Amino acid sequence: MRVKSIDRLKDSVKGTVLINEPMSRHTSFHIGGPAEVFCIPADDEDIKNIILWARRNRLPVTPIGNGTNLLVSDNGIEGVTIKIADRFSGVFFDEDFALVKAGTAVKSVINAAMERGLGGMEFAWGIPGAIGGSIAMNAGTNSHFLSKFVRKARVIDLNGKEYRLLHDELKFDYRHSILQEEPLILLDVQFELEEKDPGEVKKNIKEAAEKRKGRQPIEYPCAGSVFKNPPTTYAGKVLEEADCKGLRVGDAMISELHANFIINLGHATASDVLKLIRIAQERVYRKKDLILDLEVKLVGKFNLDLLMKKK
Ligand SMILES: Cc1cc2nc3c(=O)[nH]c(=O)nc-3n(C[C@H](O)[C@H](O)[C@H](O)COP(=O)(O)OP(=O)(O)OC[C@H]3O[C@@H](n4cnc5c(N)ncnc54)[C@H](O)[C@@H]3O)c2cc1C
């Protein structure tokens, strides 16, 4: 990459621009090689300038949030990675809705709403993502999704053009939204929350935190659920029944606590994790005649032939 061109990008952005930034610093797995160009934008204008610079230089663009649902390749990420996280955050209330910037942490939205006498999203307490990543993934629990509260969203495409998408246009489904189909970056979202007594919100938060306690191996680096739940059962259950708990490749291990979590015992690589995913898929297929789909997002170059896919 030409130094002159990078200098031009640095001059046009108020936020941070780094070269060959290790992605292990930006993923909850603590895994991932270098991002060729890594940007932390400070505002909308920064995002637009980064996108236009990438387009001029014919480079791919990858948005990330808190990196809590990502497995990044050991070879890193080509092109431009844009981290939309705490540097790009804020919650602004109008009468009956909350406008939330994409980098805001999920728990900050729940806290800010509680202070305004609003609630509803407490089920998501403990999800460590930012709002952009969480809307892209339509994060939630088995029975509640964040999409329920989304009225509309503002996105930008890779030509730098902004759009407003209404709830239905966001194509929400289980762990899915249009942001996984189209090259769009979420800038902010309008949530319609419920009027709720702060005492009740606090109680719900406590209950949600209790439910997670002791059920997820959060003391280890991980990326949440590795596989999506099949339509009629839970991925964790079938993985456990296929004796996957404790399986290990290098420093990547299927948690003894929750079979749908892979943990990094210290020096796991993305390649270790992918091999372990394949072994788990095979075991489940043999025992249950079921192919588990990935929930974790693979970013960068991988040998995808390793994975089992539904026909
Ligand atoms: C301990 C632990 C517990 C978890 N528990 C849950 C849970 O209960 N429920 C659940 O659903 N998930 C859970 N997760 C997974 C993860 O936290 C969620 O999917 C989260 O919402 C992802 O947000 P993120 O900011 O980390 O996104 P990332 O992991 O950074 O990105 C996820 C996807 O979103 C895209 N993306 C990110 N930002 C944007 C943007 N601004 N515009 C467009 N696309 C974007 C990325 O390209 C990527 O495809 C858990 C993870 C961990 C580590």
Describe the 3D structure:
This protein has helices spanning 3-12, 44-56, 106-115, 131-137, 198-212, 235-241, 270-288, and strands at 16-22, 34-40, 61-64, 70-72, 77-83, 91-93, 98-101, 118-119, 150-157, 162-166, 184-191, 194-195, 248-249, 252-254, 262-264, 297-299. With 311 residues, the protein is α+β, with helices and mostly antiparallel strands. The protein has three domains: 3-86, Uridine Diphospho-n-acetylenolpyruvylglucosamine Reductase, domain 2, CATH 3.30.43; 89-212, Uridine Diphospho-n-acetylenolpyruvylglucosamine Reductase, domain 3 (2-Layer Sandwich); 235-306, Uridine Diphospho-n-acetylenolpyruvylglucosamine Reductase, domain 1, CATH 3.90.78.10. The chain binds flavin-adenine dinucleotide (FAD). Flavin-adenine dinucleotide binds next to strand 3, helix 4 and strand 11.
Number of helices: 7
C-alpha-based Rg, rounded: 20 Å
Provide the list of bound ligands, each named once. Answer: flavin-adenine dinucleotide
**Percent of residues in beta strands:** 15-25%
User: At CATH's second level, what is the architecture of the largest domain?
Assistant: 2-Layer Sandwich
Count of separate structural domains:
3
The span between the termini is 40 Å
Q: Estimate the global geometry from the Cα principal axes.
A: globular
What low-confidence regions span 5 or more consecutive residues with pLDDT below 50? none
**Helix/strand-derived class?**
alpha+beta
Helical fraction? 25-40%
Using DSSP, what is the number of strands? Answer: 16
